[in-house]
Design a protein that fits this description.
heterodimer; A: about 375 residues; alpha/beta; TIM Barrel; about 35% helix; globular; disordered N terminus; B: about 120 residues; mainly beta; Rieske Iron-sulfur Protein; four-stranded antiparallel beta sheet; three-stranded antiparallel beta sheet
């Protein structure tokens, strides 16, 4: 147990992933931190990107061997580029720092453009440096360590409102576990970040060392849009356009959830918490219904899955709200949340610097009743990340 | 209390069943011999009213642990004691009528007695 971390929330929430659903007859008001629904809106932003702009950012953190290797090769960094840099959805207007650096690579811009507009209390950084795509495993490991030291120096230490997500070489879970042990006690790291596109589905026992370390260090495992494992981003082959990949990523998230439930990840790690980030959420109720239905008839396939899949999902999984679907009637969003049968599953996120809305009043397109409103803007994240 | 003679004991050997129609309705009941003990279930699945008693026999399939660095050690406990509805494959424990995937669901059971060589099912009018 890390001793330098803020005290985890206590009460029923601390037992196992803060999972409460109306079905379990546990009021969210019983949870620490939810006693002030009428005070000014508190905001916890669960998806702010801190981008490594180029390999030069990490060079000071790499061993001389790798500096030599990188300088003498064409290596420019992990090949995964989740977002076309020129696409207007990748960088909201004004978010590209001077000097040709990547949107999301400037702490000052994050402070001015992500934290200030909402008076954000806490922002969770999701560093999309995809070391998982580096085939030289030792380089992948050292790039991850470098990226994490860079996060501490350039982001977490200068800005105490920020929390970080550890970059880990998940293609080598034992080394990923070492990385988690190395930095897991840093009080500002709250999460281990994995790209949703994986080489092996995240339910596989292959990842057990990584999950065990995350649980030991009390870190959430965040699964985030993107990655380049070598598989197409759709189950039917390579798409032609970014539109297809961008909108279709929801099905990759669903594939991971199905794998994680069916392979019994939450039975192996009852204290594991997972966040699905930048994958949307509108699809979740229908997935829960279908999984519950098929589990009843095919229970003998996965006898270690002892409860209906939706129970595990409500208990262990949270989703960030962006990119929110844009139904023709915004009330459909409320209906979707009702269909989740939980007001604890969604967490606010801007997805800065990506483009989802041009006015902060638009950030959440429908008026929410309390306590759902306060839960989404801050309290679900506070309980889940134990902030 | 009404008593209905269903069959002679040798008509339903262990592992076998007899569907009796009509029995308080057209769907009838299924009378099962599970390892020498007789049980009777309504032949209507409480899920979607499928012909439950015509389904496959199985057991309580369990795993000692989820798959990990070691095998999951999957077992079949009490093979022949569980009935799977042919429509949606929901499993029901024959002795109790309990649905193994939803504790709120239970199929109606009837007491069965053996009187001499007769299998007798009792039900209230």
């Amino acid at each position: 147990m890390p001793t330098s971390q803020p005290a985890p929330s206590t009460g029923p929430a601390a037992v196992s992933g803060n999972g409460q659903s109306p079905r379990q007859q546990v009021s969210v008001l019983d949870r620490p931190g939810t006693q002030h629904p009428s005070s000014p809106q508190r905001v916890i932003d669960c998806d702010i990107h801190n981008e490594v702009s180029s390999k030069e950012d990490l060079m000071p953190y790499l061993a001389d061997y790798w500096r030599d290797y990188i300088n003498n090769s064409a290596f420019t960094g992990p090949s995964a580029d989740d977002y076309p840099r020129g696409a207007p959805t990748s960088a909201r207007p004004g978010s590209v720092p001077p000097g040709g650096r990547a949107a999301g690579s400037s702490l000052q811009f994050v402070q001015e453009q992500a934290l200030a507009p909402f008076d954000t209390e806490i922002g969770v950084l999701n560093c999309a440096y995809r070391v998982q795509s580096v085939k030289q495993e030792d380089l992948a490991v050292d790039l991850a360590t470098a990226a994490n030291r860079w996060q501490i120096d350039e982001w977490l230490t200068p800005e105490p409102r920020l929390r970080g997500s550890l970059v880990v070489p998940s293609q080598v879970p034992a080394r990923a576990a070492e990385e988690i042990q190395r930095f897991g006690e840093h009080p500002q790291f709250v999460q281990v970040i994995l790209p949703v596109r994986s080489y092996i589905p995240y339910g596989s026992r292959f990842y057990d060392p990584l999950y065990a370390a995350a649980v030991e260090r009390d870190l959430v495992v965040g699964i985030h849009f993107g990655g380049a494992p070598g598989h197409p981003p759709t189950p039917v082959g390579w798409p032609s356009t970014y539109l297809e990949e961008h909108a279709g990523m929801a099905q990759v998230f669903q594939s991971q959830v199905i794998s994680i439930i069916a392979e019994g990840v939450f039975d192996r790690f009852p204290d594991l918490r997972m966040a699905l980030i930048e994958g949307g959420f509108i699809w979740m109720p229908s997935l829960m219904w279908r999984l519950d239905k098929e589990w009843k008839g095919l229970r003998s396939n996965t006898p270690w899955v002892r409860r209906p899949p939706s129970d595990y999902i409500r208990e262990h999984i949270r989703l960030t709200v962006q990119p929110v679907g844009a139904p023709p009637d915004p009330r459909y969003i409320l209906q979707t949340i009702e269909q989740m049968e939980s007001d604890s599953m969604l967490m606010f996120a801007t997805d800065y610097p990506h483009w989802h809305y041009d006015d902060q009043d638009e950030a959440w397109p429908v008026a929410l009743p309390e306590p759902l409103n306060g839960n989404i803007w801050s309290e679900n994240a506070r309980a889940f990340y134990r902030l | 209390m009404t008593h209905v003679v269903i069959a002679k004991v040798w008509e339903i050997p262990p592992g076998e069943r007899k569907i009796v129609v009509p029995f308080r309705g057209r769907a009838g009941i299924g009378v099962f011999n599970v390892n020498g003990d007789f049980f009777a279930l309504r032949n209507i699945c409480p899920h979607k009213r499928g012909p439950l008693c015509t389904g496959e026999l199985t057991g309580r399939i369990e795993a000692a642990a989820p798959p990990s660095g070691h095998a999951a050690e999957m077992t079949v406990d009490g093979d022949g004691e569980v009935l799977r509805c042919p429509w949606h494959q929901w499993p029901f424990e024959i002795a109790t009528g309990r649905c193994l995937v939803d504790p709120k669901v239970r199929v109606k059971t009837y007491p069965v007695r053996v009187v001499g060589n007769d299998i007798v099912v009792d039900y209230d009018e």
